[in-house]
Design a protein that fits this description.
This protein is of the alpha+beta class. The protein contains four helices and four strands, in the order H-E-E-H-E-E-H-H. The chain is globular.
Length: 137
């Protein structure tokens, strides 16, 4: 699997349905943040994991706050299932309604885990996603 660019546009987010293990191993071998989406019936799951990037990759506290705020908002708005997982280094959304939306969210998660909250802010505008985690927007 080819390493993803940073930031990664949504159309390049891999569909890892039926090949999650191989994609995860590839990200780990590349010491890159894992991101992917899987089809589950009519809905999609988005997964992002910073552990694959290795011990030198640190997810800033402000990023964790922003990711949790975005995931909480998506669950509250019923864009994702209540079984979402919000960090601190692994993030997952079940029940995303469309492939397009799952790609957008996966790309935003990927960028955030590399320190760029702009795509997350645009993908989840109703959430309190800010640069420094102080809630000031």
């Amino acid at each position: 699997m080819q390493q993803l660019p940073i930031p990664c546009p949504g159309h390049l987010i891999p569909d890892v349905t039926d090949r999650f293990d191989a994609a995860y191993r590839a990200a780990k071998a590349q010491r890159a943040v894992f991101v992917g989406m899987e089809r589950e019936g009519e809905r999609w799951t988005v997964k992002a994991d910073a552990l694959t990037a290795g011990p030198g990759h640190v997810v800033d506290a402000a990023v964790n706050v922003a990711m949790r705020a975005a995931i909480t908002h998506l669950v509250h708005e019923r864009e994702a299932g209540s079984d979402a997982f919000a960090g601190p280094v692994y993030f997952m959304l079940h029940g995303v309604p469309s492939e397009k939306r799952s790609r957008e969210l996966a790309a935003a998660f990927h960028a955030a885990l590399y320190g760029d909250l702009g795509p997350l802010r645009r993908a989840v505008p109703g959430a309190d996603v800010d640069q420094d985690g102080d809630g000031a927007g």
